[in-house]
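Inputs:
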Amino acid sequence: MATTAIPKTKVSGGSFLLEERRPEEVFTPEDFTEQHQLIGQTAEEFAVNEIIPNAEKIEHKDFSVTRDLLKKAGELGLSSVEIPEAYGGLDMDKVTAAVIADHIAKYAGFATSWGGHTGIGTLPIVYFGTEEQKKKYLPRLATGEIVGAYALSESTSGSDALNCRARATLSPDGKHYILNGEKMWITNAGFADLFTVFAKVDGEKFTAFLVEKTFPGFSIGAEEHKMGIRGSSTCAIILNDCKVPVENLLGDIGKGHIIAFNILNVGRFKLGAMCVGGARVSLENSIGYAKQRKAFGKVIADFGLVREKLANMAVGVYTGESMVYRTVGMMDVALSEVDKSGADAIKEIRKAIEEYAVECSIIKVWGSEMIDYVVDETVQIYGGYGFVEEYPAERAYRDARINRIFEGTNEINRLIITGFLLKRAMSGQLPLMPAIKKLMDEVLSGPSVGEEVEGPLAEERKLVAQAKKLGLFAAGSATQKYMQAIQDQQEVMGAIADMTIETYAMESAVLRAQKIVERDGDSAAMLPIAMTRVYLSQAMEKIEAGARRIIAAVAEGDMLRTQLAILRRLAKYEPFNTIGLRQQIAQKVIERGKYTLV
Amino acid sequence: MKILVCMKQVPQKDAPLKLNETGTWIREDVSYEVNEPDAYALEEALRQKEKHGGEVVVITSGPARAQQVLREALAKGADRAIHLEDNAFVGLDAFNTARAFAAAIKDDQFDLIFTGLQSDDYGYAQTGVVLAELLGWPHATIIMQIEKNESGIRVKRELEAGYFQFVDMPLPAVLTIQSGINKLRYATLIGIKQAKNKPLRKVSLAEVQSALGANLQKIERLYVPQKTKNTEFLEGPAGEVAKKLAEKLRNEVRVL
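Outputs:
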């Protein structure tokens, strides 16, 4: 086997829009080390042997089972890869964190509890805690002896969390903060021990506190009756003159927003990984069902319209894996440059992760929408049986929906994507404006002979380049019209985000296929290439539609006609035979009975 | 106690069995895993070490990919590993594999050697027994339980029809371990992390070549069994039909 190149050079966040990447610059699942594989195997065995057999009990809210499993996961080390060794953690790379999330996601009810505990429940202390706070809480969070939760939202403030009503005042003796208010939608609330709670000191300074459930004045509301992830606990918490020792202040007074936003940023990539893991399970359930269900004397896996769905699901999983592992791979390169013994280590680590805020938002939005497609088609394949509780399709369908809402709604994340890119463009950190100007000059000077692209997947790489140009062209037209006020044009911001997301997805799929071709040759890469082509076809439709939507909003008359002509030129390509490609993909996954690339 | 565990990498249970025209197994889309009985053998060795102290060493033969089996064993708690690394080892029969193992461990002094009862792919159940013979050690097969006593060990063997046999044996000895006799542990993340630094000795084909001979066993042909379906109607009075049926079940189908 040829040695695979694992990326070593750091790239800046969002730069994928402007720069061309080579396959050796991205990390793919084919680059997993022996250690990643073994850890994946442990996580897989844990999910199959421990989580899934208990799913029914957990679904009926027997949270003692959840607590036991969190403890077992902790003992195996599955919950502490992001905790430093000094505090009982394993301090491993983000690829490992993603691999574990990917496998744990087999049952969403438990995955939500585990994700809440290891992510938003633990990371605030990792990234913002004092030495004492870390020593006091992290070792026990690592082992699952105590469980963490995160209390940001309220009944009247969600995405606008800074608008919260919870209050904190210093007690007359200066030893406690007295917290009053109510927090809502708190994952793990029913059985957690430690909560990161946000409240405004003196009614104005947004601040975070570490609140133990035993603190006087702290109580937990009733379980919510949810559409999905019923195997997770979601309650309100009530703070009624809750006494929190001053040493449990987390971060600085009035700086709670830094914690609130960063914690979601640094954990979001794992949600992307979980969506991919969950979608893979649904796909495999669908294949199994389609292979045994008969209609008109044949198994339904023989029918083209069913095969088309199975192929699309596999394409979703493939593309999702490509995006998620590319993203965590980039983070790991950046993190490997941080001096972990340095005084500012934690700040540097945070910065290295935040660098990829756009990519993390992309995989969250894309992953949650991909799994929603997959679980929807799974119900469809199961037909009537997809609509009843006895079969797995129904629960998966309900469970997936929340992914588009929590950890920042997909709408908020779309605004983050475009907003972050524009901010970087304005500050000159990302030379977006010069790139737009160059493209505008280029397209206005009339049709040019496109550069010849050579080597493996040349056509596909050319399409990625076209997608990038379409995005820049639409963003350029929009910024010309609105200038800074584009921030107020949410629909335009959203459309730019859509194009950005699709571009990243396309490029990730192509680079992975290219890497497989270069390593194993064309014949071994038959499926990855087919999946990539199907994905590119879908994505180009969306990108073209997005660009058209923006142009129609910002231009009219002759200007509009000129711009449409440019758009058509940029979007022009010879279509792939996606019907044939999907047949190929379906044939293989049906034959193997599972998601496969060989 | 110093225990050697012989392990094998086998195709995953759900691996597709596809043959090309020359009757060779197409392996390009096959994934591999630890042979299941070997996993129980390893678990038993680790438990014996936890009770009595000592060392657990794992050994396998096969191409580079087979190393995964050893890393997994090291991650679960084995102390060191020996890898007879060469593609050619895949083609050895059980006798030659045992000879290769015997040659590779000639400088080690083990108290016990465990193998899984048999392999999930070929299922010969021979390597352990032949290895005992080559070393001149006693052996016992289908082991369910091992107790150390003053003179050696007492083992429980699984016989047919729910019977067991208890055997007192001296050490050193070779035992082939039955699946399911204990609960397998997971490789913990800390174990996986530490496994990277544990010693793994590689043995080349050349180092053991002189111990090997011609294979005594070879696969003539691989083929997927053809499905045949014969339906025979027994006619006549009920008493006669029943008699004929009983006869057939006894002599042809042999289920009575």
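Remarks. Chain A touches chain B through 25 residues (CB under 8 Å). Residues 155 and 184 of chain A are 6 Å apart (CA to CA).
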